[in-house]
Structures are given as structure tokens and as C-alpha cells.
Amino acid sequence: MRIQLIFAAALVLFAAACNAAGTNQSVPSTSAGSNLTQPAGDAASAGQVRPDVDHTSVLNALKTQAVIGSTVDPTNGDQNPYGLVYVRSKPFGKGVLKQGDLVACNFNDKANVQGNGTTVEYMTSTTGSSPKRLMQNAQLKGCASLVINSFDETFAAASGAKDATGINAGGKMVQTLKNSGLLVEPWGSAYVPSQTGYPPGDGLWVADASSGKIVRINLGTGGKPTYTAVISGFAVNKGVPGSILGPSGMQYNAKTDSLFVADGVTNTVVAIAHAYNDIFAANSIVVSADGKTFSGPKAKDARLMYSGSPLNGPISSTLLPNGNLVLGNTLDPSGKNLLVEVATDGTLLATKNVDTGAQGALFGIASSGSSDANTQIFFNDDNANNVQVLER
User: What is residue 206's DSSP assignment?
Assistant: First the structure.
């Protein structure tokens, strides 16, 4: 049984006690007519009002760029890192992951064949680190994105294996999620936690690069997970491994119950309000072919956050502590590898070229910190097969 399930039962009892006392522990919806206005309560923000939009550029303030370490698997030589996550908290129980570690997955094999990688690595987030294998498994073939939950369980969306897998902090595969009708080419992913974990429990949201759908997988606290294509219509290019574009770069902000999705075909970023609470039925939101308008019963919850230049083939993103998004381009016409920072109201804040070599080097992006002053941005550089950091 996953460790998450053990804690869920205790949380349910706690929620019941709070409700009996008149305290609502569910994720609140935002106010009527607004997309991103009312933050959900948490231990850090209870009783505080956080700004919806922050126009302070963090990317501009990060002047130092350094190499953390290689992401090449030390045993079988897998390379070309795609997914990347940062371990924010001390893992529960015993395991190889530590607070402050980075976890990355390789998309290519030793021969550099696109989509044949089957390994996940971890390393400390300090310069001079060396990769260590967290897991190797055929169920990880073509790992395209990684997410991590509060229990330090890493989920990999594997385009080649057509699944998503859960790996605990000890490097053991604890869950394999397959659905032949909906998970055809898993690409982007986001982890959406509930307040209590029951029911329907935490959600793993997976974007499919074959269908342009976003599948909500309710993990629950027992029994079989459920799969629902809650959003459809995102543009895809039907590319072969190495040139795939579609909905990806997914991020979830628990404080506002908002899901952000980038599409590298239309160069758009879409914000979905009330994601956990409202978006649970099939085709709740249908995205137009250009990625800019929406239909479906929950269309009002969708908003075009950003469109067009300087975005060009974005695949990955990270949500900064101040709420801004940083996205990574893969198709810059001038050959640049731009990180692009955007505020949640769609204001372009900054761009930074982090690799002067061939375009298409940026895939996984992660961040750490609790404020603008201590934020770090990590990114996979596929030109060098390493992970790098931007910091003050």
C-alpha cells in the first residue's frame, strides 16, 4: 500500500473533526466570474491575502549560471534528459532521495535513439554532482515528464511505454497506470493533490501528445484509479520522438486551484480555474484549434493566459514561488534556447538565453525556494546532457 494511502485515512478523520467544528477543509472555488482570484487556505497563507499577479521578474535577477552535473545514466548510458523535479521536503521513511535532490529522466538510449531511454536519475542540487540511478524499467521508455507529490513519490509520464508510473523515494515502482484508450502518448503531467486525499483522492493529470487530451487520473485511496479525458482539443503535431509537440509544460497551483498548460504547436499558455473542484467530467473544456477559445460545460473556467512570441515550441515549465511561470522554448528560429517568464495575467516579464548552441536544448525545468530572494531555477540542457542552475 502506498504511503499516501496510510496518511489519507488520518486526514479524512481530521477533516471530519474540523467540519464538525464548522471549519471547511475543502479546496474553495474562486469567486464568481473570476479565474484566478481567491487562494485556497494552507498553513502558510491562512488568514492572508496573496496577490493574484506578481510582476516582479525572478528570471532577470538570477545572474549566475552553473552546471549541477551530468544526467547520463552511469550504468547503461541513457541520455537526453526530459523530465525534471526538485525534492522540496524530507522524504517519509527510508529511501535514497534526500531533501534538495533533483530527479531527472532520460528520453534517449546510449546510442542516442530518441524515445528509447528507460532510466530515472537523481543527484544533489549542488554543483559538481554525479547522477545515480533511481530506476530502470521498460515501463519508463520514452519518459517525457516527471512530477513529484508531497510524499516524495515521483510519477513519470512515458510516451513510449504508453503509461505513467509511480516511483517511491526508495527507487521502487509502486504503481503503473495504463489506459489504452486514453494514454496513447503520455507527454505532459501535473500532480493535483486534494485536501484530504479521499475521495476521489489526489489526481495525476496527463496530457497526451497523440490525442491532444488531458486525462484526469483519480488515484483515490483504494481500488482501481479512474481515467477521464476532462479537457480535449489541444493541438498536436503527430511528430516522431525528438520532434513531438502538444499539450505539456503543465503546472498546478494549489493555492488557487489553477492548472496551467502550454502547447508547443500553437505557442499558447492556457489557465484552467477550479481545476480540482470543477473539471472532472469528460470534455468539460474543449480547446479550439488555435488554442485561444474554449467551449464545453466548463468553458468559463478556461482562459488564454499568453499567446505568441517569444514562445516558440515550449515543452516544459516551472511554477515559481511568486506564482510566475517560466517556460522553455525548443524551436527558436534564431537558434536560441530561451527561458520565458510570464505572470499569470499574461504579462511578459523576461527572457534569458541559457544555451548558445543548437536550438531545442531545453526540456525539464524545476525551481526551488520560498521567495524571490532564494529562488533557484534548474533546467535540463540536452545539448550537454546535464542539469544546470540559475541563481543569484
Answer: E
2 inside domain: no
Q: What CA–CA distance (Å, rounded) separates 88 from 82?
A: 19
Three-state helix/strand/coil letters over 240-289: CCCCCCCEEEEEEECCCCEEEEEECCCCEEEEECCHHHHCCCCCCEEECC
Encoded amino acid at 77, one letter: G
Q: Tell me how far the alpha carbon of residue 243 is from its chain's centroid.
A: 20
Examine residue 228 and state whether it is found in any structural domain, yes or no: no
- In order along its 392 residues, the chain shows pLDDT tens digits of 344 443 343 443 333 333 333 323 222 233 323 333 333 323 232 222 334 789 999 999 999 999 999 999 999 999 999 999 999 999 888 899 999 999 999 999 999 999 999 999 999 999 999 999 999 999 999 999 999 998 899 999 999 999 999 999 999 999 999 999 999 999 999 999 987 667 788 999 999 999 999 999 999 867 789 999 999 999 999 999 999 999 999 999 999 999 999 999 999 999 999 999 999 999 999 999 999 999 999 999 999 999 999 999 999 999 999 999 999 999 998 889 999 999 999 999 999 999 999 999 999 999 999 999 999 999 999 999 999 999 99
Question: Looking up cell 484526469, which residue turns up?
Answer: 216
Cell of 143: 519518459
Residue 353 lies in a domain: yes
- Residue 58's domain comprises 47-70+313-392
10 exposed, middle or buried (CB, 10 Å; 0-12, 13-18, 19+)?
A: exposed
| Structural domain total, the chain | 1
Q: What is the distance between the alpha carbons of residues 352 and 337, in angstroms, rounded to a whole number?
A: 8
The grid coordinates of residue 252 equal: 498546478
CB environment 238-272: b (16+ within 10 A), e (fewer): eeebeebbbbbbbbbbbbbbbbbbbbbbbbbbbbb
Whether 389 maps to a domain, the answer reads: yes
Q: How far apart are CA 229 and CA 258, in angstroms?
A: 17
